[in-house]
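quick q for whoever's on today - can somebody do inverse folding on this one?? i tried earlier but teh output was garbage lol. tokens:
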């Protein structure tokens, strides 16, 4: 009852309840489990779901619990264990506890707190399989023994057995027992229906019902209605009368029944699988499904609306999915679909590797005759419609077919018409009705019956992978080497490679002013002559995408080799604009109902939005479609309840269930596993945890299903676990577990208090001892201070004397260093700068003049016939002449000029900020000073002249040496021209 209420609440909260009817049976996805997937046995006798969400299966090799990901088996070898492995029936009571029966007449109860209790069969009760059980309004659990009658169990009285009367067919009991609203017990047999009335008497069902003596059994629906299944007829009991509701054709042996939340009836059979009676009529599962065979023994609808089927050959589940799919079972010529197109009359055309199909009014597909010259069906790659209503079909190797609206052939454009051979992967019709086709040798234009290769300069000449006319009539051309855009009579090239490495283009879609491009490196956007990208680095889960299709609700659907991706247009534009770093994408694949996760591309169109708002995409396994209106309903389904699966302390499992708080020894490693109990997308569930006592907020765990704590401080803790579907809200039904970490012995308050007192006493004793030591130390220290003070005074006097001596020595060394420095750059005879000092100054002023652009002039002069002076008057007279020459030159210089003796009788004069003309005047003035000087060196009548070379820094003087060489050459000319003159270089 409690589980039924849970179902009802979840259903009312679920958007699926808003649907007037369930989808056709063909649209359900089917998942299968057998012993290969973890089941201990393939025969499932019963299925139950407890309120927290776990599913339980009764098998011949134990009780199985399922959480959507893992099977956990309880049998005789486990702890807690069962009395027998053969499980007969399962029942969830009003308190959420699970009742379990077995093949030896034992009854086991597992409370919602995880406590187990067993009622073993008694001496007066059969030791056989208990096939079914139900609980009445008084809390009595009614049991059906296989061929041995019935009994009821209460915790107070135990099992009260009622053997079968010999005149009733209970020896041929079937596996069904129900208790109606009046607490009457109905029992199914192979020879009619048996009733235990409120007076306690067992008898046959009223003869007036006319159900006969064949296989007859009862079923009580979630709404409380009592149904009787008799042969091929279904009755509902109303006012103690049978009302025939359904009579099924054929020789059916029905073995299980379920009324779901839509009111539809599901029927399991002995050997004809599963049936459903709904607004779509009597439905069977599509032929060709590889489902577990044998009798359908049990049916159960879970809290999410999925139908679980237990058969003798295994377990399978039917679930509603977001996507629906069409394959060869629905009439398609082939499952490898390449293109889909809706014409203006809303007819759907599908091209595949096996031909061309059109959808009929009943939803099935019929092939359109489209044979090539070899008589075989053409492989279709592209579709388009012209303004006249003709359908254009591009093929693999057979050119382009032009069909009338009724599908009849108007013309096949092939090599004879000038059509290049190879693949036609894209067709686009321009506003004037001209058809453009992409071939393996470029783009062709089909105008009437003429096929012409587009030869505008810059057009591609290789494989064309996509074509699209924009709103201005420009033709966008996708190739394996980027994009070309035919704009009137010129071609624009757009290279994708510099931005993310894109090369192959698979599709175009214009949205407003922006053209979106699908490529092998994600999505590109061309907007206002600027290219941007949304690819792997921006959050796309795959590199290659084939087609982008926006719907009318703001979603964007993107096909790829790894499923269909969904995001929204606002997010894509934000990432492309740089306003957001990453795009959030949901991905859909086979688990969501797609025929195949591999969507096909490099054909056109490979995905479309139909006029009714549905999205269609071609895949390697058929054609898939989704109604975006259903998306929000699926995304808003209730969040999965969270449940703790197990708790381990240092690797050893502990019993954590129950109201008592677990005590965990301190310093241990604590590991907690949990799960979100949803069976639709179990591997996509996200989790978060919060440990009260440690965490201040929730901690996101992603898909991680466990958490570990090591060395928690002593204290009380409560672990909260919440789960959610991708993109959904966090569940309010949290898993909660409280525990206490015990302190170590030294962390207990009493021990800490005792240790504190001991430490206090030790500190007092230590204080007194240290005080005595301190006083003695003070006395010793005073004596040592007096002795040290006397020594320090003596050392101070000595150090002061040493410091004075050091100061005087330092001053002498400084004067010597200054003298050495001056001698290194000064001529000892004349007191002018020597060659070293001159070269350093020349290099510095040369660099400064080049940076600033200020003028710089250089004069190199040589005393005329100086050797004659030395030879005639002696070298001492020559030295006096040189000193007087230096004095005359220095007297003629400004403070900013540098006179220098560069060697022997050769001098130089460096004139800063001086033009050549000004420098020439300086030389003339200096010559006048030489001429006016009488009696050089005191020798009467001794006349001294000089020859000079004058230059100004020019752009060709890359180094100071080049400048000096020019001046030296000018000096040589002055000497050659007769001396006593200045030559300008």
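ok took a stab at it. sequence:
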């Amino acid at each position: 009852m409690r589980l039924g209420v849970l179902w009802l609440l979840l259903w009312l909260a679920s958007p699926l309840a808003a649907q007037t009817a369930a989808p056709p049976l063909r649209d359900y996805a089917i998942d299968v489990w057998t012993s290969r997937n973890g089941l201990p046995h393939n025969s499932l006798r019963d299925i139950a779901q407890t309120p927290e969400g776990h599913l339980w299966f009764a098998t011949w090799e134990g009780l199985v619990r399922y959480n959507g990901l893992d099977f956990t088996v309880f049998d005789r070898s486990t702890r807690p264990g069962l009395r027998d492995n053969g499980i007969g029936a399962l029942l969830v009571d009003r308190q959420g506890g699970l009742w379990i029966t077995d093949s030896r007449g034992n009854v086991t109860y597992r409370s919602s707190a995880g406590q187990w209790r067993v009622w073993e069969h008694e001496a007066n009760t059969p030791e056989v399989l208990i096939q079914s059980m139900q609980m009445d309004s008084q809390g009595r659990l009614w049991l059906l023994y296989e061929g041995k009658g019935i009994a009821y169990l209460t915790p107070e009285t135990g099992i009260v057995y009622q053997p079968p009367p010999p005149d009733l067919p209970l020896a041929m009991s079937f596996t069904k027992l129900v208790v109606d609203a009046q607490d009457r017990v109905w029992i199914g047999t192979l020879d009619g229906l048996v009733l235990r009335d409120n007076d306690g008497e067992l008898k046959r069902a009223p003869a007036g019902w006319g159900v006969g003596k064949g296989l007859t059994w009862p079923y009580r629906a979630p709404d409380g209605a009592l149904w009787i299944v008799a042969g091929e007829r279904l009755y509902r009991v109303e006012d103690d009368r049978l009302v025939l509701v359904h009579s099924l054709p054929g020789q059916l042996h029905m073995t299980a029944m379920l009324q779901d939340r839509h009111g539809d009836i599901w029927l399991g059979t002995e050997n004809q699988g599963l049936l459903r009676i709904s607004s779509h009529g009597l439905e069977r599962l599509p032929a060709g499904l590889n489902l577990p065979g044998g009798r359908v023994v049990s049916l159960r609808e879970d809290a999410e609306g999925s139908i679980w089927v237990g058969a003798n050959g295994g377990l399978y589940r039917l679930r509603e999915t977001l996507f629906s799919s069409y394959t060869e079972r629905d009439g398609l010529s082939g499952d490898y679909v390449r293109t889909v197109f809706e014409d203006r009359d809303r007819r759907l055309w599908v091209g595949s590797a096996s031909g061309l199909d059109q959808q009929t009014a009943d939803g099935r597909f019929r092939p359109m005759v489209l044979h090539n010259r070899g008589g075989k069906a053409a492989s279709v790659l592209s579709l388009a419609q012209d303004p006249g209503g003709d359908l254009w079909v591009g093929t693999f190797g057979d050119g382009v077919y032009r069909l009338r609206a009724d599908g009849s052939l108007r013309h096949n454009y092939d090599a004879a018409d000038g059509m290049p051979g190879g693949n036609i992967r894209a067709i686009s019709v321009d506003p004037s009705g001209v058809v453009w086709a992409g071939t393996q040798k470029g783009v062709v234009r089909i105008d009437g019956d003429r096929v012409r290769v587009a030869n505008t300069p810059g057009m591609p000449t290789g494989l064309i992978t996509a074509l699209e006319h924009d709103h201005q009539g420009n033709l966008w051309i996708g190739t394996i080497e980027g994009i070309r855009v035919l704009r009137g009579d010129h071609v624009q090239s757009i290279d994708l490679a510099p931005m993310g490495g894109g090369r192959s283009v698979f599709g175009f879609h214009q949205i407003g002013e922006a053209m979106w491009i699908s490529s092998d490196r994600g999505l590109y956007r061309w907007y206002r002559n600027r290219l941007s990208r949304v690819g792997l680095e921006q959050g796309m889960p795959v590199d290659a995408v084939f087609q982008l299709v926006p719907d009318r609700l703001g979603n964007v659907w993107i096909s790829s080799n790894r499923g269909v991706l969904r995001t929204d247009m606002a997010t894509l534009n934000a990432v492309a604009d740089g306003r957001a770093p990453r795009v959030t994408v949901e991905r859909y694949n086979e688990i969501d109902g797609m025929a195949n996760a591999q969507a096909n591309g490099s054909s056109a169109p490979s995905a479309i939005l139909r006029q009714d708002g549905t999205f269609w995409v071609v895949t390697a396994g058929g054609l898939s479609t989704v109604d975006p209106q259903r998306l929000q309903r699926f995304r808003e389904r209730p969040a999965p309840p969270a449940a703790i699966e197990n708790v381990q302390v240092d690797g050893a499992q502990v019993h954590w269930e129950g109201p008592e708080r677990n005590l965990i020894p301190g310093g241990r490693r604590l590991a907690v596993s949990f799960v979100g109990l949803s069976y639709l997308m179990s591997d996509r569930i996200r989790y978060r945890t919060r440990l009260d006592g440690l965490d201040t907020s929730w901690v996101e765990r992603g898909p991680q299903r466990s958490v570990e704590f090591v060395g928690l401080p002593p204290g009380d803790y409560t672990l909260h676990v919440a789960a959610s579907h991708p993109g959904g809200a966090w569940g309010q039904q949290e898993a909660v577990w409280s525990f206490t970490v015990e302190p170590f012995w030294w962390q207990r308050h009493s021990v800490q208090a005792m240790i504190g007192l001991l430490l206090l006493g030790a500190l007092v004793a230590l204080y007194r001892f240290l005080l005595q030591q301190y006083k003695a130390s003070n006395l010793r220290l005073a004596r040592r201070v007096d002795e040290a003070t006397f020594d320090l005074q003596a050392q101070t006097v000595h150090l002061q004397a040493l410091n004075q001596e050091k100061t005087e020595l330092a001053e002498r060394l400084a004067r010597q260093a200054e003298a050495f420095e001056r001698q290194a750059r000064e001529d000892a005879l004349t007191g002018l700068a020597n060659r070293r000092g001159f070269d350093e100054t020349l290099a510095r002023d040369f660099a400064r003049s080049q940076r600033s652009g200020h003028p710089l002039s250089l004069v190199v002069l040589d005393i005329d016939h100086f050797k004659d002076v030395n030879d005639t008057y002696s070298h001492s007279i020559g030295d006096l002449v040189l000193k007087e020459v230096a004095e005359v030159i220095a007297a003629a210089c400004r403070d900013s000029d540098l006179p220098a003796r560069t060697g022997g009788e050769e001098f130089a004069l460096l004139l800063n900020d001086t033009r050549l003309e000004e420098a020439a005047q300086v030389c003339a003035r200096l010559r006048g000073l030489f001429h006016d000087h009488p009696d050089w060196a005191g020798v009467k009548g001794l006349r001294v002249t000089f020859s000079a070379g004058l230059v100004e820094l020019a752009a060709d003087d890359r180094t100071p040496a080049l400048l000096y060489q020019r001046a030296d050459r000018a000096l040589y000319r002055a000497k050659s021209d007769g001396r006593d003159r200045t030559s300008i270089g």
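fwiw The chain is about 20% helix and 40% strand. also The two ends are 119 Å apart (CA to CA). so keep that in mind when u check it
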